[in-house]
């Protein structure tokens, strides 16, 4: 069996869904499992619904209405006959969502988040699977929550591999087109969980691992994995082949084209991963496998914007050693700041972090009691794999370099735009 994953960008409108059908005609659809994300920016739109719900905002109803309208338009563009049962199926899903919003009693934000945000994937797969049947492909819709079992760590649930493996090997039918949701799972009480934002690539890898799939293909709006994000680098080039190790490194440092959790299950069973263009499905794209590091071999650039550079130094000139460092890291973890770079000397310690949840102010008040804290907001972190002088120069040109760390394979540079 082959696993195909289609992300939000590939199913953002009716033309996108028709294009998925074209991709299937070209790539084949027998004995295939499709993992599909919410359409376009639906997950972000559902996050607004969640916010409105907790804020008891007057906009709650209209924010749901907007999502309904968006999906309804896609349905009307796809199906000529509005008597098609897909209209009732999607309508029922929206009624369920509205029922939850009225009757939920749980104050647990993360729990509520997962129960609501999951409708993005549930609805997109309902539409997509009906459309594939409508076009004459024998299709089966699977509720992924009957397959992927997780703990109850809502919004960032961990997979129970044993239960998941048993469910998947028993219940996925072969020889037809299976369609299921990315990003979702369920806990032991069958409540919906999610695997972390952008987690649908990971879902594809979970299925692949449990079913011993022949391969995984993630279909993207780019020709494959490139040596830089083409949104930010004009001359980005396609990497034809990369090793699992290189792909993990690139994803870890922030090449968002592959979700970092995707690689480990695939690497364990040596299942190849193809990253291909849903616009030009016949082009080879990038293949990630056991082979050589990087083909062609060239520097790879990864950019992380809106970072925070924090420098801590001891107030009394004492060393910053293991004990301090473990305490500092404990605090970063507690305040959910993601550390992307570390550099230390005898009496100072610098980190480049991402403050996704806006917790730095509170953390700073704690750190300041023990250390002298200096920080610069809004810096950019560049990571260059396999850097050379020219690559470093390209990054540094016209910017103020605040910190630079050079390793044998990886160079990291923190800059502030002038
Ligand atoms: P999905 O629709 O599956 O969620 P994403 O939007 O998450 O897809 O990933 C595709 C995007 O990743 C591309 O549009 C591109 O801007 C970005 N990207 C970041 N780094 C790279 C890279 N090294 N190579 C290709 N694309 C990259
Ligand atoms: N829909 C989810 C998100 O936007 C999962 C995914 O697209 O991978 O985060
Ligand atoms: Mg995505």
Automatic annotation (TrEMBL):
Gene3D superfamilies the UniProt entry points to: Acetylglutamate kinase-like, Aspartokinase, catalytic domain
Annotated GO biological process: homoserine biosynthetic process; lysine biosynthetic process via diaminopimelate; threonine biosynthetic process
Binding site for substrate: 43, 121
Positions that bind ATP: 5-8, 231
Pfam families attached to this UniProt entry: AA_kinase
Keywords: Amino-acid biosynthesis, ATP-binding, Kinase, Nucleotide-binding, Transferase
Domain Aspartate/glutamate/uridylate kinase: 3-277
Record bears the keyword RNA-binding: no
Swiss-Prot/TrEMBL catalytic activity: L-aspartate + ATP = 4-phospho-L-aspartate + ADP
E.C. code: 2.7.2.4
The protein's annotated pathway: Amino-acid biosynthesis; L-methionine biosynthesis via de novo pathway; L-homoserine from L-aspartate: step 1/3; Amino-acid biosynthesis; L-threonine biosynthesis; L-threonine from L-aspartate: step 1/5; Amino-acid biosynthesis; L-lysine biosynthesis via DAP pathway; (S)-tetrahydrodipicolinate from L-aspartate: step 1/4
InterPro entries per UniProt: AceGlu_kinase-like_sf, ACT-like_dom_sf, Asp/Glu/Uridylate_kinase, Asp_kin_monofn, Asp_kinase, AsparK_Bifunc_asparK/hSer_DH
Enzyme class: transferase
Molecular functions per Gene Ontology: aspartate kinase activity; ATP binding
The family this protein is said to belong to: Belongs to the aspartokinase family.
Listed name of the protein: Aspartokinase
Native species: Flavobacterium cellulosilyticum
Lineage per the UniProt record: Bacteria, Pseudomonadati, Bacteroidota, Flavobacteriia, Flavobacteriales
């Amino acid at each position: 069996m082959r696993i195909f994953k289609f992300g939000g960008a590939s199913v953002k409108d009716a033309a996108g869904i028709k294009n998925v059908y074209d991709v299937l005609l070209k790539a084949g659809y027998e004995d295939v499992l499709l993992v599909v994300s919410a359409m376009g920016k639906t997950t972000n739109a559902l996050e607004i619904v969640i916010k409105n719900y907790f804020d008891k905002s007057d906009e709650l109803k209209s924010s749901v209405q907007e999502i309904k309208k968006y999906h309804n338009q896609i349905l009307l563009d796809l199906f000529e006959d509005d008597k098609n049962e897909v209209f009732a199926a999607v309508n029922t899903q929206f009624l369920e969502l509205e029922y939850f919003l009225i009757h939920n009693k749980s104050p647990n934000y993360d729990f509520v988040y997962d129960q609501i945000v999951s409708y993005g994937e549930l609805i997109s797969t309902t539409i997509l699977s009906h459309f594939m049947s409508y076009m004459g492909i024998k299709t089966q819709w699977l509720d992924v929550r009957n397959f992927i079992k997780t703990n109850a760590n809502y919004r960032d649930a961990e997979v129970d591999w044993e239960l998941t493996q048993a469910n998947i090997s028993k219940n996925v039918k072969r020889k037809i087109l299976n369609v299921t949701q990315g990003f979702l799972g369920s806990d032991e009480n069958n409540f919906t969980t999610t695997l972390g934002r952008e987690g649908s690539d990971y879902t594809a890898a979970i299925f692949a691992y449990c079913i011993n799939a022949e391969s995984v293909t993630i279909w993207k709006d780019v020709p494959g994995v490139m040596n830089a994000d083409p949104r930010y680098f004009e001359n980005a080039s396609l990497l034809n082949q990369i090793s699992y190790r290189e792909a993990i490194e690139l994803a870890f440092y922030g090449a968002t084209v592959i979700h970092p959790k995707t690689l480990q299950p695939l690497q364990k069973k040596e299942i190849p991963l193809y990253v291909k263009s849903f616009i030009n499905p016949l082009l080879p794209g990038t293949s990630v496998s056991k082979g050589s590091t990087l083909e062609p071999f060239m520097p790879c650039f990864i950019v992380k914007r809106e970072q925070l550079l924090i420098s801590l130094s001891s107030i009394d000139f004492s060393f910053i050693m293991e004990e301090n460092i473990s305490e500092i890291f404990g605090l970063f973890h507690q305040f959910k700041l993601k550390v992307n770079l570390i550099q230390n000397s005898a009496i100072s310690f610098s980190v480049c972090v991402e403050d996704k949840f806006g917790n730095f102010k509170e953390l700073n008040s704690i750190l300041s009691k023990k250390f002298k804290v200096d920080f610069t907001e809004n810096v950019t972190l560049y990571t260059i794999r396999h850097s050379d002088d020219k690559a470093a120069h390209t990054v540094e040109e016209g910017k103020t370099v605040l910190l630079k760390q050079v390793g044998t394979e990886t160079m990291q540079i923190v800059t502030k735009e002038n």
